[in-house]
Every structure is written in C-alpha cells, then in structure tokens.
Specification:
The complex is a heterodimer of chains A (109) and B (122). Chain A is mainly α and 109 residues long. In chain A, 90% of the residues lie in helices and 0% in strands. Chain A has four helices and no strands. The chains are: A mainly alpha (109), B mainly alpha (122). The interface between A and B is large, with 40 and 39 residues.
Chain lengths: 109, 122
C-alpha cells in the first residue's frame, strides 16, 4: 500500500477505535474539571480508568499527528518549514502522551 | 525540491456556504482538540505536583473563564467527533448528494450542542 494511503487509513482506524472511548472521556471530563484534589486522585486510582485515558491519549495524539500533517500539506508551501512543523508535531505527539501516562501511573501507585 | 501537489483553496477567496463553514470548523476544532488534550494533560500534571498546585487549578476552574474553557473543549470534541462520523460515511462513499450533505451538516451542528448539553447535565 502507498505510504499516503496507509496514513489515510490509519488515521481513520484510530478515529473509529477512539470514538467510544472519547464519548466515555467527555462524560467524565466535566466531573474531573470540577472535582477537588482527593476526588481527582480517587478517580485516577482506578486502573481501568487510567487504562482508558492512556488509550485516549495514545490514539488521539496518533490521529492528531497525521491530521496536522494533512493541514501542513495543504497550507505550508515551504518544504523546510513543513519539515520543521512536522518534526515539532511528532515531538508533541510523543512527549505529551508519554508524560501524561507516566504521571497517571505514578499517581496510581 | 519544489512540491508539485496542488494548493488548497485559500480561505480568503472561498465563497462562504454551509459545507465550507462546517469543513473549516472541522479543522479548527482539530486544533482546539489538540489544545484541549494538552490542557487535560496539564490537569494531570497539576495533580501530580501535589495539592498546592492543584489548588491553583481549582481557582482557575471556579472562574467564569475557566467554565467557558471547559464547555468550549466539550463542544469542540463533540463537534469533531460527530462531524468525524459524517466524514467516515463519506469515506465509505455515502452521503454525497447535496441535499443529504447539507442535512447531515445541520444535524451534526445541532447534535454537537445537544451532546455538550448532555455531558454537562449528567
């Protein structure tokens, strides 16, 4: 399969898997944003919740990296700038999920 | 090497219509969602840093601006998720007729507000 086609397909696959977990996330997001310290810690002490949130982070940032690449393809014309932007997005899409998951796992210990 | 791929229509010269507005909104919400996920990661880090740092978050959360951000993130995710389903149907080859595309667009827009409302009352 062509590289662009496989990227296109992978982005859709990530989106489809993400769908139910994102709905779950949204229905907890409002509670989390208004919960106090101990309530928030209590939520993250649940291993299933941490597992689902980790999956959301990984899939969302994977989906996002490909999507941002598409936007760069459409609107950035300078190949050098495009490379730098893509590199930055790759870095973000690795650092944020890894850091967030590590923090959740350590908090849950 | 210069790229040979065609350029997308520039937004400034594009005629405004429902389909284009919804399409641009899909891309705009993708960027908001990135900010939203990063914001959620920050929430985790504040929690990780301890109660004193989390208290700072609670102060932000109690402001009107904070609530606006929370609802805004919820709507952005809702819209992108629902319009994403619309995109998946297109990818499978359905829903291209102008009437259906407009109808599904209006449906997505309305549903995004309903989903945001449901998230915040439950």
């Amino acid at each position: 399969m062509n590289r662009v086609v496989s990227k296109w397909l992978l982005q859709r696959v990530a989106a489809v898997i993400l769908l139910p977990f994102l709905v779950w996330f949204l229905f907890h997001f409002d509670n989390l944003m208004t919960s106090n310290y101990s309530e928030a810690l209590m939520f993250l002490s649940n291993k299933t919740y941490v597992g689902i949130l980790s999956l959301v982070f990984i899939l969302a940032f994977f989906h996002m990296r490909i999507g941002m690449g598409e936007i760069f393809e459409d609107y950035i014309h300078d190949e050098k700038v495009k490379k730098i932007a893509s590199g930055l997005i790759l870095l973000i899409s690795l650092i944020i999920p890894v850091a967030a998951i590590a923090a959740m796992v350590i908090l849950g210990l | 090497m210069k790229s040979e791929s065609p350029l997308s229509p520039h937004l400034q010269v594009y005629k405004w219509q429902l389909s284009s507005i919804l399409s641009i909104t899909h891309r705009m919400t993708s960027v908001f969602n990135l900010a939203g996920m990063t914001f959620f990661a920050l929430w985790i880090f504040m929690l990780f840093l301890g109660e004193n740092f989390y208290n700072l978050f609670e102060i932000f959360a109690s402001t009107v601006f904070g609530k606006f951000i929370f609802v805004g993130i919820t709507w952005s995710f809702s819209y992108h998720l629902l319009n994403g389903i619309r995109h998946l149907f297109w990818d499978m080859g359905y829903g291209y007729e102008l009437k259906i595309a407009n109808l599904s667009g209006i449906l997505v827009l309305l549903s995004s507000f309903i989903l945001t409302f449901l998230v915040w009352i439950f």
